[in-house]
Amino acid sequence: MIQRYDDENGAHFGFTDRWGGVSAVPYEQLNLGGAVGDDPDAVRANRKLAAESLGLDPAQVVWMNQVHGRDVAVVDGPWGSDAEIPSVDAVVTARRGLALAVLTADCTPVLLADPVAGVAGAAHAGRPGMLAGVVPSAVEAMVALGADPSRIHAWTGPAVCGKCYEVPEKMRAEAAAIEPACWAETSWGTPAVDVSAGVHAQLAALGVRTRSQSPVCTRESGDHFSYRRDRTTGRLAGYVWLDG
Ligand SMILES: [Zn+2]
User: Fold this and answer.
1) How high is the pLDDT of residue 1?
2) Whole-structure pTM over 0.90, yes or no?
3) Centroid of ligand 1 to alpha carbon of 184 (angstroms)
4) Cβ(164)–Cβ(219) under 8 Å?
5) What's the gap in Å between 42 CA and the centre of ligand 1?
6) In this structure, which CATH number among 3.40.50.300, 3.60.140.10, 3.60.15.10, 3.30.70.20 belongs to the domain 2-161+215-242?
């Protein structure tokens, strides 16, 4: 249900797969996305199940309305209502114990934590967001709250891999002109983009030395939601928080 990583400094990272929830086909089972056509009651139940399995209070999880941009929200508590959720692709907090969540189904979920400063961040990096600089934006916002890139532990979660993310030649050229590390080729020999590789190159350039990457490709894994494979499907979530 959830792959969890806890570092020795009190930073916690979790990535869900599609199992262990209550949603029906084609969102089976643990769909955590509220805007994909699934029954809202099922999504609510799934968010509760996922939070509880991580030892989190579901009411203390901060979600975003993701729009493939580079805007960041600084938060110090949960949103008052769904109507308050801003359209951003990154959230950062200096509130220990508050969990930040990012939804994906092929895009790269980026989780960041500086346990010494007590600052965490989560970002949604698809191809447009990665190229727009959502990851540098998130790190910059964390630094403004006292984080130091050299202390940040970054995790990227399950995402479509560079061998699967086929794009037109022109799109690859444009992407690689902005972030050379994302240049890729599919396993069948056509142009591709590796968004996670781009994210890791950006993090390295920002001085984030402690970086981990999930080996899971969502398009290849039957245990994960993949938009490119299934179109109508659920959303996975990544969670990051610091000991309170
Ligand atoms: Zn793949």
Assistant:
1) 87
2) yes
3) 11
4) yes
5) 29
6) 3.60.140.10
